Fold this sequence. Notes:
The complex is a heterodimer.
Chain A: E1 4-13, E2 16-26, E3 31-35, H1 42-50, E4 57-62, E5 65-66, E6 77-80, H2 92-102, H3 107-120, H4 136-148, E7 154-158, H5 166-183, E8 186-191, H6 194-200, E9 203-208, E10 211-216, H7 218-223, H8 228-233, E11 240-247, E12 250-253, H9 264-271, E13 275-280, E14 285-288, E15 294-297, E16 300-303, E17 308-314, E18 317-323, E19 334-339, E20 344-347
Parallel strand pairs in A: 3-8, 3-9, 6-7, 7-8
Antiparallel strand pairs in A: 1-2, 1-4, 4-5, 9-10, 11-12, 11-13, 13-20, 14-19, 15-19, 16-17, 17-18
Helix pairs in contact in A: 2-3, 2-4
Chain B: H1 2-37, H2 41-44, H3 58-66, H4 69-101, H5 105-115, H6 119-131, H7 138-163, H8 166-175, H9 179-190, H10 192-208, H11 211-216, H12 224-228, H13 239-259, H14 261-274
Amino acid sequence: MASISIRNLVKRYGNFTVIPDLNLEIADHEFVVFVGPSGCGKSTLLRIIAGLEPISSGDLYIGDKRVNGVRAAQRDIAMVFQDYALYPHMRVYDNMSFALELRGTPKAEIDARVKRAAALLHIEPYLDRKPKELSGGQRQRVAMGRAIVRNPKAFLFDEPLSNLDAKLRGQVRAEIKALSQELKTTMVFVTHDQIEAMTMADRIVVLQSGTILQYDTPETVYERPANQFVAGFIGSPAMNFFPVEWRDERAILSQGATAVPLDGETAGRLRQPGNAVLGIRPEHFAVVTDADGIAINVKLVEPLGSDTLLHFDLANVSAIARVDPSLRPKIGDRLSLRPQPGKTHLFDAANGQVLR
Amino acid sequence: MNDAANTDRWIRWLNTLQLVLAGVLIMAPTVWMVLSSFKPSFEVTAYPPTLIFSPTLENYVELTRTTPFLSYALNSLVVTVGSTALGLLFGIPAAFAVSWTRISWPAILTLAARMAPGTLFLLPWYVMFRQIGMIGSYTALILSHAVITLPIVIWVLLPSFDAIPRSVFEAAQVDGCSVTRILWRIAMPLVASGIAVSAILAFVFSWNYFLFALVLSNGDTKTLIAAAFNFIGEGSTQWGALMAAATLIALPPLVLAALVQRWLVSGLTLGAVKG
């Protein structure tokens, strides 16, 4: 168990800079998720921590030890790969015991640790099988088992759920979360799926173009996104964005001149710059009957069971609202929506930074 | 529907015809060689060739009477096994290194050496081995035959190594393996059939290679194939004995290939289909 500290890290491939200058502190026992779109550098960063990619400049510490030039084999970290990367010619048992055997762990201890991990992951019946005789979910568990038998300083997960079907993904997600609480080891998890990030992380690192846009708890990242990119990336369906102006002591959507009823605090933040981008999450629209709401025409209805998604156009923007399914809306219905007080976000129209 | 069935039948028929023609073309010299080895010496060169004849072992008796056949066979075995082992010893790590580093020029270099005519090497080698007193030694023959076996091993194994997902090697690195250990514990077991195939091909090519043994061997280390050349004289050629020798020389590679035929094909296409 150890903290991970990244200081002024730069990663280049030839002339192409993947990570320009990155600083990150991951505390001991913490479960941190790197999330971001494809090509944002999250997997590269994980592979740098693992020792599978060299650092162009900067420092990397695992615990108190600077590990820049230390080979992966000597970093004492475990990694679960996207394609599981099990050794095809070895039985499940041997896959799990291999790393311990390399370290010269006594046979009895290897056996005990493999069996304990197998019990924890419910893979005891498969210990004598080869990986090709297992399903995707079982292989995924073996890959995790191979990692946990070692009691490493940190676990690294490189999109380990992306090859599983939706149901299994939800199940394994919960299991990894439970495992992290049981093992109390530093965990770094890479995903492009913001639901995985939200449900599992103690803290989320949102990355774009090799730069950290926000590093905070899932609640903070969701409720107080640092900028428009984070606001749009975290949350599903994504946050709706509308260009907005302060005109005649009212907030007006720039396209179409529709007035938006904002709470006093948000209106105060908009008043000074005069224009901004207004962000409203689909779940933060309330259906109202009074005339103060924004009138919309329902374009599409997506019933999800627990709630219903309404698609509509507002001020030349395709937007979504999440409403109570008991409303039973239909395509073409005219409804009145109102942003919930204190739940709207304003972003600088020029640089996307949040206006506070 | 009927048209499609007819077309299919035609295609099948043409395929069979092609295979039969190819088979005849490939097998005819072999069959001719084997039949000739059992013909009385005067019938071997008869024209038109006879298909009905009274088989005799006279050529085989002549072969063993006039030449130390077993001793030549042993020489061939030593040189072939030695050069195949040498090819595997250096070829396996070389192929792995090329696959690992993705630097392919060393592999291309060995291929170029294999493509070059053997005569190109012959003179420098003859001079070199003579200066260090190794002409006629097994070592010289084994080393020279490694030029045949090494590229085979490298190029048969390269696609097999390439077909192993990179993440498997990375998992081994994270687990604590050095590169050497990854080769030994992870990569080699995964390409075992490729190694067997490359070993068999290297064996066959080395066994059949004629030129280096002709020049670099002496009476004690002459290989079978070089010794068979002795039956071709300036004035006359002992066709019967030559055919008997050729039949015996062809036996080990044929038997080997027949034994591992299915494995050979799957091993050669392993890299292509796994990736």
